[in-house]
Design goal:
heterodimer; A: elongated; B: alpha+beta
Chain lengths: ~200, ~350
Amino acid sequence: MYNASLGENLQWKQFVSGDEASFTELFKYFSKPLFNYGTKIVADEELVKECLQELFLTLWRTRTKLSVNVVSVQSYLFLSFKRMLLRKNRQAAKVISLNRKAYESFAVQYSIEQVLIEKELMQEQERLLVAALQMLTDRQKEAIYLKFYHNMSYEEIGEIMGINYQSLRSLVYKAIKLMHTHLVESKSAGSKSSSIRILLSLLFI
Amino acid sequence: MKADYFLNYEAEDFVMDDTFRNWVLNPNYELETIVQQYLEANPEQKKVVEDARIIVLSLQVQEKLLPEKEWEEIYVSFQNKLNFASREEIKPTNRSILSWRKYAAVAAVTGIIATILWFYTADSKKQPNSQTYVYATNFGEVKQVVLPDSSVVTINANSKLTLAPVWSDSTMREVWLDGEAFFEVTKKPGNKSKDFFVHTEKLNIQVLGTSFDVKSRTELTRVVLTEGKVKIQSPVNLHEDIMMLPGDAVELKNKQKIPVKLAVRPEYFAAWRNKQFVLNNTSLKDIALFIKEYYGTEVKFETAALEKIKLDGTSLPVEDEKIFLTVIEKATGIKIERTDKGIVIKSK
């Protein structure tokens, strides 16, 4: 991703100086990843699409106030987008009903069926992995998503999530360790089977 | 490239490793070779690698993709908006809220006579093409926008105004309105561009420079003239032209086929621009309709009799829904209960 990153920085510089074409390129390059990310934060797809345009148009209008040398265009955009979505989501919740609170979570969907098909996992193994995934915190899900799906560096993820490098690595490590522990458990018979059954009844977001 | 550093890896370390993940998800000949060589040298790690592989696969994310065609539309729409935004920067757009008075005065002084034509064409549902710019307001929001020809439109809550991003001198000026807006249209020379059209769901309105309010909601389509003189040409079914003077309104209710002319106080119908709701022997039924249109809140009445209660004599600020409802409560002696679907109006 190194070369791509150089390209983005150049386009960002040009955009800040007022180049529409570069800015349109940035929009095209980042809209799909941002859209995917946005739908994890906010359920309303239409809201995500609207915010995507609004974010970029706002950036255009305020470009003279932006820094020419931003270290990672990607994390800057992801962070700004996240903030805008959360703000809009809270406002929207207020209009719909004064009683309902905006539920903020990280709603990522894991495609574990894929694993099942490929690896012919035993049913028990699959259930344990599903249970483990369910036990991941929203922070863990978000960090893993940004790392494994968007291939971001820990520095970038740290910027977006507001966590430092060490805490982040530790967060991700713990998540993976949890999954490994559960997977290993499938070998030993009958351990923790009752608590796992309770976990199975939870809806898999 | 050798994977010597894999040597003391546990499952977690494999999963965190970029190269390993690449091998699991996007294997190529080189990666395959590395891993195979490693496993041959360290057969006791087979189980660990296998576990790690399963975990990497489990953490794969399901993405619901939008169709490519939709992305193309999104890109085009963005480019138009960007275009529009940069053009707006070139024009001086420091309009104060009060500048509309200047335009109204100019319109009066130069004595512009406007003609509004009503069409009952089968094709009155003319839709904008895909390259459009949309100004939309939320519930409780009022927005003022300047069109490419310097006309000023004040858009009421829960409304949508659509137009093409670029207006040239050789095309006619047109907008599509869903909801309510107050128009102050500038006079333009030229063959085609002198006409200004407002398309609503039920009617198409043709204008030549004037100030008027257009309301196009589910129950009613209505035009109220503030400034200027207007002639409505007869549509196919009617025999006479309709002359409109300031203070006239022409209404077409949902079930009617022929529009009706009334005399009104136009400032009542434009009061929403100052975020006020005017009470003029207004029934709770009408107020309920306003609450639904403006705030998006559903209203139910405990008894039908309550709908007939009337309020008169003042105007209420509408910016805060809670305050608005409280005032209604106190003025009429009713009780408003909030449910998760909206509000219910009950007697005390």
